Amino acid sequence: MYEFDYHRPGTLDAAVKLAGEADAKILAGGHTLIPTLKQRLAAPKLLVDLHAVRELQGVHLKDGQLVIGAMTTHAHVADSALVKAHLPGLAALAAGIGDPHVRHRGTIGGSVANNDPAADYPSAVLALNATIITNKRSIKADDFFKGMFETALAEGEIITHFSFPAGIKSGYAKFPNPASRYALVGVYVAQHGSDARVAVTGAGANGVFRASTLEAALKGNFSAAALEGKSVPADGINSDMHADAAYRAHLIGVMARRAVAAAH
Predict the structure, then answer these.
(1) Does the pLDDT value for residue 255 go beyond 80?
(2) Per-residue pLDDT tens for 94-119?
(3) Which option is the CATH number for 57-165: 3.30.465.10, 3.30.530.20, 3.40.50.720, 3.20.20.140?
(4) Domain spanning 170-263: which CATH class is it, in words?
């Protein structure tokens, strides 16, 4: 690693001030940033660790919305009675991330801000039509994800909370890489009245995306049977040493049917 200064602010205001300095990087769970520093692929002058900012942690219900702090760990989301009661699909997703060590250190905010193309949370945020709340503004999920490792966040902007619609029927299914447990393909489905949203992670060459063909099939008939014979084109699907585009495209349909079954 290169030499850098390390700060662990106790308030959001202090964190925002530090994050606005030149060559500053925000540290959440650290599962991406720390290896990047070790490989000398990044050399920030300042690390701003958010773990002591209590206002960024926890889960609560407000005006029909499930509000989750950005520094809430995967384990907390998975074990939260509120999440299990109002969005059990999201709790199940969190329970399947990595291993216990990862779940007790990694955070929902760090995952979404990093927007790894194989991360689990972006699919839930997109399918549930969540709102990403920062220290500056509120951003709808459809406007947040811009591409692989790219988001709408400005330099120094910090995610503070996520607002999810409570009581939405939803489910998640993924085909994990057996070594990393990242999704080769992960599909999150959510029923919004007579409409449905389907978000896919792990498969898109440009990161998380909505599968409009599958959404149309589920409109008015939110069932696994409605997806029989439906598929996603292999164009724009990632192909690598783990799985080619055609196999991933096939898996999207399989995982989507499993996700709908899980939602029920």
Answers:
(1) yes
(2) 999 999 999 999 999 999 999 999 99
(3) 3.30.465.10
(4) alpha beta
Q: Which amino acid is at 151?
A: T
DSSP 154: P
* pTM over 0.85, yes/no: yes
> How many helices and strands (H and E) does the chain possess?
11, 14
Neighbours of 247 (CB within 10 A): 16
Reduce the DSSP state of residue 164 to 3 states and report it: strand
For residue 8, CA distances in Å to 13, 19, 50, 73, 224 come to: 12, 11, 6, 17, 47
Angle between helices 88-95 and 245-263 (to 10 degrees): 130
- With 80 as the cut, is the pLDDT of residue 203 above it? yes
- Domain extent listing, the chain: 5-49, 57-165, 170-263
Q: Which of 221, 229, 260 is nearest to 127 (CA)?
A: 260
Which run of H or E residues covers position 130?
A: none
Would you state the pLDDT for residue 119?
95
Looking at domain 5-49, its CATH architecture is 2-Layer Sandwich (3.30)
> Please, are residues 260 and 171 in contact by the beta-carbon 8 Å criterion?
yes
Is residue 135 classed exposed, middle or buried when 0-12, 13-18 and 19+ CB atoms within 10 A define those classes? middle
Question: By the 8 A CB rule, do 183 and 174 touch?
Answer: yes
